[in-house]
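Re: the request from the purification team.
They wanted to know what the chain is likely to look like in 3D before they choose a buffer screen. I agreed to run a prediction and write the result into the notebook, where they can find it.
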Amino acid sequence: MQAITKFMGQDHDRLDDLFREFQTLKGSDFAKAKHAFSEFKRGLQRHIVWEEEILFPLFEHQTDLQDHGPTAVMRMEHRRIKAFLEQIHDRLVKGETDAIEFEQQLVDTLTVHNKKEEAILYPWIDQSLSDQEADTTIARMRQVPEERYQHCCH
């Protein structure tokens, strides 16, 4: 069973769709574009919380790689991703849609980051958990309180 890989991969796909929607709409319907970005940003922030608070510690506990290894690199990438999100967000708050340099950097970073997760991290976690443990892990992720990630574009 590949429960974590499937669950997180589907979330990657959902987030990618929201970002493409934002990019498509930003030139024609600012309100809808802003809403799509807001949903994308909150969803990506939630995704990062899931990883940093639940999935990464599972991996680190099993491998004893807390301060180095793949999750250390992924945390660094998360910091870059958050910075790009905020730069785009700041432009939108000002009513500006011209953030193409930040958007491209975000897409480039996410593309490489997501591939590593889907090829290495998630499958490793799936292999190390029983079906019951995977289900419990996903349930824990779904129970993360909204205040941990619900802030954007007000």
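For the purification team: Residues 3-148 form one domain.
Please add any questions underneath this entry.
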